[in-house]
Write a structure and sequence with these properties.
50% helix, NADP, oxidoreductase activity, SDR_fam, oxidoreductase
Length: 289
């Protein structure tokens, strides 16, 4: 179990959306928050908002740090800056993510694969590589990786294959990290939301130059209409704070997604049933020979 009160949190993708919702709720819970994002202007506006909350609940203003999570050196520099301001980081929230929807896998440009994997997967890897050795050395702390319900199933209707590929990886990384950190005093959670009212469908506007630069990705825009009436980022932040205090590993936000996961697992079990039938048939044929 992890109580954010009086702790220092490092949250990526905190300039808007789920990251900002998490930052707000952590500040209300009494945490000092180092907020990271690649968009300087959005980050400063978010920092000012969270600073006001932080002054009321923890007495410390929030810190804004411009970060490209797809770049290991950028994350390391941000970690050093956060610790120089607030002291040791206790909670790492690897939340930054980008959309990759509406295109068949065979049609996704390699540059888009590089970008999605760079942010959604390597962003988590860079956060882990930077902070886990520091947390282990102290024997305390917690890591949260933001995946998605798309990290546990693929929505065929919306062509989420490329996005789900990255989020399946985040779930696997989180499960492995939890096992590896058992007994160290460092906890792990993986956040798996569904529809949240954010601007993730516009995330291509922030693509770094070395990965192709900002651009419009109209294939993602349909997601804006689908998620505009979803949960608020603050609701996700509330859920995460409760999950941290409860010691939850899988952090789900939408109860209706349970049936999706049950259906996928049923298909997996069906595959084993088919294997059993095959092995029985082969055994019978050998016995009759």
């Amino acid at each position: 179990m992890f109580d954010p009160a009086g702790k220092t949190a490092f949250v990526t993708g905190a300039g808007s959306g789920i990251g900002l919702g998490i930052a707000r709720r952590l500040a209300r819970a009494g945490a000092r928050v180092a907020m990271c994002d690649i968009r300087a202007e959005a980050l400063e506006a978010a920092r000012q908002e969270v600073s006001g909350i932080s002054r009321n609940f923890s007495g410390d203003e929030a810190l804004g740090i411009v970060v490209d999570v797809s770049d290991q050196s950028s994350v390391e520099a941000a970690a050093d800056e956060a610790e120089a301001r607030f002291g040791e980081v206790d909670l790492v929230v690897n939340n930054a993510g980008v959309a990759m929807h509406g295109v068949k896998i065979e049609d996704v440009a390699l540059s888009d694969w590089d970008w999605a994997l760079g942010v959604n997967v390597y962003g988590v890897i860079h956060g882990i590589r930077t902070f886990v050795p520091r947390l282990k050395a102290r024997g305390s702390g917690h890591v949260v990786n933001t995946a998605s319900i798309g990290g546990l199933q693929v929505n065929q209707t919306f062509l989420t294959g490329p996005y789900s590929t990255t989020k399946f990886a985040v779930v696997a990384i989180s499960e492995a990290l939890r096992s590896e950190l058992e007994g160290t005093g460092v906890g792990v959670s993986v956040l798996c939301p569904m529809a949240v009212a954010t601007d993730i469908h516009l995330s291509a506007r922030s693509r770094p130059e070395r990965l192709g630069g900002p651009h419009e990705r109209p294939q993602d825009h349909f997601m804006g209409d689908l998620i505009k009436d979803g949960q608020s980022p603050d609701q996700v932040g509330d859920r995460l704070v409760a999950a941290l205090r409860n010691g939850d590993f899988y952090v789900f936000t939408h109860p209706e997604t349970r049936r999706w996961i049950e259906a996928r697992h049923a298909r997996i079990i069906e595959g084993f049933d088919q294997l059993d039938a095959y092995l029985e048939d082969r055994s019978n044929r050998k016995g009759a020979a």
